[in-house]
Each structure stands twice: as structure tokens, then as C-alpha cells.
Amino acid sequence: MVNTVECPEELPFACSSWIGAVRLNASEFIWNRRGNIVTYLPWYPGEPDNQKCVHLLRSALWDDIYCDTPRHFICEKDFHEL
């Protein structure tokens, strides 16, 4: 089953999802589950702007926002757990 959400085109931040990356320091992010440094950083123009958690926008670009902002989420699952 795949869940979908209708998102208005004119609101790029309306239908975003947490991806599990969090700020480690001023210039680095880590994957929350494993603690690995994030090396792929496709930021939305003007981002990051000093928030702690990262979400994936409808455009497939990233934005950092406060961690308590309600969003959908994407979970990582190990292949052997499938």
C-alpha cells in the first residue's frame, strides 16, 4: 500500500516529509538512525538556515526546520528486515 497526499503546486513546503537527518554542528548534518555524516545535501535555495531537522520538499530538495514542526516521515529499513 502506498499513501499519497494531495499537495498544492503553489505551496512547496506544504507536503514535506522528515527524512531523518539532523544538524550536528554549524556545517554538518548526520543521519539520526546511524549517526553517519550526510554527504548528499540538495538544499532548497537559501537553505540551510540554522534549524535542527531536515525535511524533503515536494521538489525533492531539502530544507531545515524546527524538529517539532508536524510533517509526514520517511523511514529507513534495512534490506534484511524486509
UniProtKB/TrEMBL annotation:
The keyword Repeat does not apply. PROSITE patterns: C_TYPE_LECTIN_1, C_TYPE_LECTIN_2. It comes from the Eukaryota. Keywords: Disulfide bond. Pfam families: Lectin_C (PF00059). InterPro entries: C-type_lectin-like, C-type_lectin-like/link_sf, C-type_lectin/snaclec_domain, C-type_lectin_CS, CTDL_fold. Residues 18-76 form the C-type lectin domain. This is C-type lectin domain-containing protein.
